[in-house]
Design a protein that fits this description.
Elements: H1 20-33, E1 54-56, E2 66-70, H2 72-77, H3 82-85, H4 88-93, E3 106-108, E4 111-114, E5 117-121, E6 127-135, E7 138-145, E8 160-161, H5 162-177, E9 184-196, E10 200-210, H6 216-224, H7 228-242, H8 245-248, H9 253-275, E11 277-278, E12 300-301, H10 325-340, H11 347-354, H12 357-372, H13 383-395, H14 400-415, H15 421-432, H16 438-453, H17 460-468, H18 478-489, H19 494-504
Antiparallel strand pairs: 1-3, 2-9, 4-5, 6-7, 7-10, 8-10, 9-10, 11-12
The chain binds adenosine monophosphate and magnesium ion.
């Protein structure tokens, strides 16, 4: 008998050499040693700020919850036991039907400017913070959205519907995978409990995760209500935990905080613009003090490029149109600066802290657009190249995501020095096809190629790889979200799971996901997304 044939373990029913018996007994051993564990290491830095900042409030239960979707990646970040996440206990906990020992549920108070007007007190009207769990880079807050009434619900019902919860879940994870700072989403649960919006829908709860959900509006609240001790306490809290360098630097720490938040916001705006993302409700209560994308409502990744695009059906005047968003962010930062004035000796300090945004945003945008074009080292004089292509995209209403992806795929064939004309023109053809004004596109593409080749040590294949890692193949287009919602309403979460998986690797062309990267269907332009959620 040859020695290489392993001897089957006694009683193995499957295959000589198979470790079936060992594997089964190892698994059983592991399960005995580590039963499915609910998280227990809850902390509560925000709660410890004191009662001026929040109101303790239990989530309101929903009947017969079911799991709609979950992110294993977020579960890992929170150190959650995956088997526990699949348990009925987790389902009840993340619907707000059950608390775990160590949780301390609360709703926070904030105010804000909505659509350019002071709106007074708002607060977490349907979000309940459960506490924090330890993450790799510090504690992460875990918050239920749609978990029932709070003292800040005003006229609302404290609930969220399945439709908007699926959109928030998918978009949070899509943005993260694109490298854009965002709150995360651990899971969505649903219930057949009816919720009244324009029509009757069903309830859902999204479990959101972020280092902090503090908004510009939290500062506005304590400033406008004259609670300046609490304002200072809040600012000190944010500096201590998230911007420690502001205390170490010279000058007024609150002006430094404003400057640091402005810098993060400038970077965020450049990232939104570069990926064609619009946030439909950029009110100051939806602006994260950490420069994260938060409060996904009527957002959109643009299909056909239109700088004046308005993604929120409720925003008739287009205050939050795509091209206005960087200026709106500056306006919002101004509100934050105004709120922080009581902590400064001189208003000039706030103005000086806001000033760098005007240079930081365009520089960040140029850097991001340069990377999209395969020009990671921007040069003076690159702006017209970007501006021209954006104008062409707008004039011909070209699909934003498909243009950048096709351009990336064409880069090597088109720009390799010494490539013959036929090869180059075959490479660029799928991009050229997207335009009506072919001559204008040809003129631009020649300039682009010259600029690419002018880079020292230009390597066409490396440039193509860099562009493919910058320009996503898949973004959460409105119609994709809509299809996932329609399926989920029928109790089928397969499409949602497939879409979620594709959005987690947006730069990789996965086989079988071609439909998710295709042009939007005609009906996509008819989808109306409003503030109703
Ligand atoms: P939004 O524009 O969705 O971020 O919400 C603005 C404000 O309205 C926040 O204070 C929310 O908590 C509150 N809000 C939105 N929808 C509801 C709802 N269904 N029930 C209670 N409060 C809500
Ligand atoms: Mg909000």
């Amino acid at each position: 008998m040859p020695q290489s044939t392993p001897h089957p373990p006694p009683g193995c029913p499957v295959w000589p050499g198979c470790r079936w018996v060992e594997v089964v007994s190892e698994t059983i051993q592991t399960m005995i040693q580590s039963p499915s564990q609910a998280p227990s290491a809850w902390t509560h830095r925000f709660a410890e700020l004191g009662p001026a900042f929040h109101s303790e409030r239990l989530p309101s239960p929903l009947p017969a919850p079911y799991l709609v979707g979950a992110s294993r990646a977020v579960a890992r970040e929170l150190g959650l036991d995956e088997r526990w996440l699949g348990s009925d206990e987790a389902l009840q906990v993340f619907t707000g039907n059950q608390l775990l020992p160590g949780m301390r549920p609360l709703a926070s108070v904030y105010s804000g400017h909505q659509f350019g007007r002071w709106a007074g007190q708002l607060g977490d009207g349907r979000a309940i913070l459960l506490g924090e769990l330890p993450g790799a880079n510090g504690p992460l807050e875990v918050q239920l959205k749609g978990a029932g009434l709070t003292p800040f619900s005003r006229m609302g019902d404290g609930r969220a519907v399945l439709r908007s919860s699926i959109r928030e879940f998918l978009c949070s994870e899509a943005m993260h995978a694109l490298g854009i700072p965002t709150s995360r989403a651990l899971c969505v649960t649903g219930s057949d409990a009816p919720i009244r919006r324009e029509e009757i829908e069903t309830a859902a709860v999204v479990t959101r995760v972020a280092p902090s959900f503090i908004r510009f509006g939290h500062f506005e609240h304590f400033s406008h209500s004259g609670q300046h001790t609490e304002l200072r306490q809040l600012a000190d809290f944010v500096i201590q935990h998230f911007y420690p360098a502001c205390h170490a630097q010279d000058g007024n720490p609150y002006a430094r905080l404003l400057e640091a938040v402005s810098a993060r916001t400038a970077e965020l705006m450049a990232q939104w613009q570069a990926v064609g993302f619009c946030h439909g409700v950029m009110n100051t209560d939806n602006m994260s003090i950490l420069g994260l994308t938060i409060d996904y409502g009527p957002f959109q990744f643009m299909d056909a490029f239109n700088p004046a695009h308005i993604c929120n059906h409720t925003d008739g005047a287009g205050r939050y149109a795509y091209q206005r968003q960087p200026n709106i962010a500056y306006w919002n930062l101004f509100c934050l600066g105004q709120a922080l004035l009581p902590l400064m000796e001189d208003p000039q300090q706030a103005l000086e802290a806001l000033e760098p945004y005007k240079a930081l945003f365009p520089a960040a945008l140029q850097r991001r657009m340069g990377a999209k074009l395969g020009l990671p080292q921007p040069q003076a004089g690159d702006e017209p190249l970007t501006e021209t292509v954006m104008q062409l995209l707008a004039q011909d209403a070209v699909d934003f995501t498909i243009f950048w992806r096709r351009l990336s795929l064409a880069a090597a064939g088109f720009a390799t020095p010494g490539a013959d004309a036929a090869t180059a023109s075959a490479a660029i053809e799928p991009v050229r096809d997207l335009f009506l004004q072919r001559d204008a596109f040809d003129a631009w593409s020649q300039q682009w190629r010259e600029r690419l080749r002018s880079q020292p040590g230009f390597d066409a294949a490396a440039t193509q790889a860099q562009m493919l890692a910058t320009n996503p193949q898949i973004v959460l287009r409105n119609h994709l979200g809509e299809i996932a919602i329609q399926h989920a309403r029928q109790g089928d979460f397969g499409y949602l799971q497939r879409l979620h998986a594709a959005l987690e690797t947006p730069f990789t062309a996965l086989p079988g996901h071609e439909d998710l990267a295709a042009f939007p269907p005609e009906w996509a332009s008819q989808i109306e997304i409003s503030c109703s959620s």
